[in-house]
Specification:
Number of strands: 9
CATH superfamily: Peptide methionine sulfoxide reductase
Structural class: mainly beta
Number of domains: 1
CATH class: Mainly Beta
Bound molecules: zinc ion
Radius of gyration: 17 Å
Distance between the termini: 40 Å
CATH architecture: Beta Complex
Shape: globular
Helix content: under 10%
Number of helices: 0
CATH topology: Metal Binding Protein, Guanine Nucleotide Exchange Factor, Chain A
Length: about 150
């Protein structure tokens, strides 16, 4: 059973390149948008899983597809000052992570041009959604005994 997103209606199309949205399809083990299942990155392009964002785990990827980038900004991170841009799902516009444009510290420059995806924003290769804490009232377990 495949859930195809189908054609996106006009209201999702953002300005500049009117109309068609070309999405890259990945094969194999990939991470995808938790909202619209757009493919983002291959598991084998992960450089590091030991990154941390404000919201929990984040992975560093060599390549990410189907994203648009926001405004450049300087961020003062634990590892020094970096120029970063936020990255957004090209299909639904939700923010999924950021990209390192440049780093001041020599030791951090391996991250330049690389992407961070926040783990809780994406679906894993097996379609899993990572949660810091599971929902206490999951579907199908209504408590109703007296
Ligand atoms: Zn999306």
């Amino acid at each position: 059973m495949m859930l195809l997103p189908g054609l996106l209606s006009a209201e999702f199309c953002k300005g500049e390149d009117m109309g068609r949205l070309f999405l890259v399809s990945l094969e194999g083990n990939f991470y995808s948008c938790k909202h619209c299942q757009t493919h983002f990155a291959l598991a084998h392009d992960i450089i590091s899983k030991s990154f941390q964002s404000r919201h929990g785990k984040a992975y560093l990827f060599d390549k990410v597809v189907n994203v648009t980038v926001g405004e450049k900004e300087e961020r003062n991170l634990i590892t020094g000052v970096h120029t970063v841009v936020d990255i957004f799902c090209v299909a639904c516009g939700s923010i999924v992570g950021w990209k390192y444009e440049s780093a001041c510290e020599k030791s951090q420059q391996y991250k330049e041009g690389k992407f961070i995806l926040e783990r809780f924003k994406v679906l894993g290769p097996d379609g899993s959604l990572y949660m810091e804490a599971p929902e206490p009232n999951a579907v199908g377990s209504d408590v109703d005994d007296v």
